[in-house]
Amino acid sequence: MGTASIHEGVRRMRFSSLLERTEAKELTQEAAAEMLGMSVRTFQRWASRYEAEGDAGLSDRRLGRPSPKRAPRAELERMLGLYRDKYADFRIKHFHEQMQKRHDYVLGYTVTKLALHAAGLVMKAPRRSAHRKKRPRRPMRGMLLHQDGSRHVWIDGLPPLDLIVTMDDATSEIYSMFLVEEEGTASTFRALRDVISEHGLFCALYTDRGSHYFHTPKAGGKVSKTQQTQVGRALAHLGIEHIAAYSPEARGRSERMFGTLQGRLPKDLRLAGITTVEAANGWLTSHYIAEHNARFAIQAEQEGTAFVADAHEAWRETLCVIEERTVGNDNTIAWNGRRLQLPESRLRPHFVKATVRLHEYPDGTTSVFLGPHRLATFGTDGVQISPDAPEPGRVLGAVKDKPLAGRAKCASLTAPARAAVEIVRVGTKKRASSRTKKLTRRADATATTVA
How far apart are CA 156 and CA 154, in angstroms? Predict the structure, then answer.
């Protein structure tokens, strides 16, 4: 027996009792109709039907008749067929969106869900657990960002990859998203560069306790407050607070977001015909992030933003791997299995035993610094690529298209300063021995004696 039949039986019993009281002049028809929640005219019609047909006259004549507003059977069959043939691994909400976007589908989400349940194509979701109170969101954009990675088969035919996502706590808006082979320091710096270059510096970053984020002296314990990773050093330099999460539940917003992405993104990449990581990253940046934010991002509690522009772009030389090295006797530096040859410089005759600073950027290039001075930049193969790198076979100091012969001889950059000048006496007469001999230095080695 359905709910409608039960309600009908109750209504019959109540109507019979109230009808008897109206006939006995205990109630007026207006009062009885109000108690039944109907109009006086409806009460009078029911009384007439009850007098003519008995209990059968009180039956709901809508029961057993198809609703004039029900969904067309042909459209439901088309929807079920498309789900079986093309979208069998889609979640209901995602499937409904794709039907509206690609197949001119006009039926509502609830109708679609009930039809899929009735056909046995989708199981009903289990009952949810007890209510838990969520951590309040930060009230303004840029106050707290979440960053995390999820390993999954994102592209059909390729092995599992890490999807690195950086999102805002206040709005759940995704600022950066890309695929890499393995999450680490380089991927973290790449994501932070994407965010800061576009939006500016933010207040705090919330991450797990991965080894590229924190040093954890004891497995599963608290993170170190004294030892810093490359990421920790960069965030501290930029004034960004780094917050460690100690459980998956603490990163609930990131976990729920990745649940949504794992259910949707592989299907969307497949529908877009994407089969390579490079194409996927380009499509994520140009297409998917905006579509995802339009669908899932919410309004922040307060207007405005906590992002601050980095006027001096300090992030460019901060969001990279920075280490110190000592220069060898041949003016080279050992770095990642390569020898980086430092070029000649006017800063000093040579750099032997000097302590220099190396910056390795997310694109694989490396720059060498002595204090604030950039000495050279090298590519991933260890070859110098900085603009001031000398051309092969060219002598430093030679003028282009003019031979070095015939020009005044220049002192070597590594020679002492005295080698480039000549000491010349002024005057032709011999001075008295009691007088100090006055000497003058002239920069031109071919200068003549002043008479």
Answer: 7
